[in-house]
Amino acid sequence: MSKTDRPNSPVQAHTLDSRDQDYYFETITFKVENTFFNVPRYHFERSSEIFATMFTLPAGDGVPAEGQSDRNPIVLEGISSVDFRALLKVLYPLQIRGIRLTKDEWISVLKLSTQWHFVDARSLAIEELDKHSEMGVVDRILLAQKYGIAGWLRLGYTTLAQRSNAISQEEAEKIGWKTAFLLGQVREDALSQAYRQTQALYQNTRPRRPYDSEDEDEAEMYAAGLNIQVGRIEDVFGEEFRTAQLESTV
């Protein structure tokens, strides 16, 4: 066999090796409470501008960069390991057939994705929480107030204003007395306007029927009031909705 017929030497073959541009991950180690987590840096760099900026900060002279090992992790103070694990389930799912999280885990994802600006994870958390029909209107309002979800605020306030029963003391304590008071004003203004319009309409155009009752008149009047409250919600709470929208995009 001549020299030209010999197979490539190990050194020659090695020069052809390369790291895949998509599937060769550098890992990062976090310490949250008393638990270490070692995961690819990928989503923390690509999906969160906060972490992307953190990773670009230079280490001190002679000091190893944080996150390289359990001996020198990035310590996330004030974060629950339960919340952090839920976020990792979304960023790095262990199941091939989709992400399966409980309602509380999705709330954890919403919390941290909002705090750290994981835009896609936040959108997914809101989308998944929307599917939990057992969440009441007040529960959604509380999450919306805390994490800046303008759509939930608008829908929640409108629902409370339009329903037949008034806001309870317990609900008022949860959503805030000022919010409850403003919603009460919206209801009163709408019903007062509906009463005046209905009375004028009945007096001018409708003969009194012998079987009519005052309760029936009030029911029709109340229904008329509900139809005009949506615009008033926007007038009263529009600034809060706009602030929530801005906070969600920061």
TrEMBL record:
<dbReference type="InterPro" id="IPR000210">
    <property type="entry name" value="BTB/POZ_dom"/>
</dbReference>
<dbReference type="Pfam" id="PF00651">
    <property type="entry name" value="BTB"/>
</dbReference>
<dbReference type="InterPro" id="IPR011333">
    <property type="entry name" value="SKP1/BTB/POZ_sf"/>
</dbReference>
<protein>
    <recommendedName>
        <fullName>BTB domain-containing protein</fullName>
    </recommendedName>
</protein>
<feature type="domain" description="BTB">
    <location>
        <begin position="24"/>
        <end position="131"/>
    </location>
</feature>
